[in-house]
């Protein structure tokens, strides 16, 4: 009996260790974003590995440090990541971004939609970008508006997929930007710092949705949650 018990014990220990390693490997990386309006924390989805790895690389390179939130639309989204805005004074025009590098789309609305707080990759329009490739650095955080079931029914018209009950509930209770679903890659979400995001979305802007006073990312770095 004792001889049988030892192999079983070893098997269950190995199984338990394997489960722990698997769970750890599935943990989503987190990033602390420090801005002139306060801080917030985001996480990147492992289900969109191209975007995850690209943004982790940019964070490690400090590519976002000093970059501005150059496009802000209240009750829709706040956008940053144009690396040419680093050190740009408010008196100078925004640099064009049509020559930026791109990465392949990872659009999966069956998993991720534009609910309030979710993060998407900006991109050029369909006329010049039919493959919906993402900007390699520009991103937006959704603030959005609330939806009814009737609104979502209209959004679904002509699409090859339907909202899940959970997605519908999130849009009704939290809001978002459902009209973007299926057109842009959603690759992360806000975990903490809604107060900061709300401060940014409420800043005064010009006719091009550019803040009248620069809102700057002071630093982005990998974040390890406290246990």
Automatic annotation (TrEMBL):
Its EC number is 5.2.1.8. Keywords: Isomerase, Rotamase, Signal. Residues 38-222 form the PPIase cyclophilin-type domain. InterPro entries: Cyclophilin-like_dom_sf, Cyclophilin-type_PPIase, Cyclophilin-type_PPIase_CS, Cyclophilin-type_PPIase_dom, Cyclophilin_A-like. The keyword Signal applies. It holds the Pfam family Pro_isomerase. It comes from the Bacteria. Residues 1-23 form the signal peptide. It is an enzyme of class 5 (isomerase). One of its GO terms (molecular function) is isomerase activity. PPIases accelerate the folding of proteins. It catalyzes the cis-trans isomerization of proline imidic peptide bonds in oligopeptides. Belongs to the cyclophilin-type PPIase family. This is peptidylprolyl isomerase. It comes from Porphyromonas pasteri.
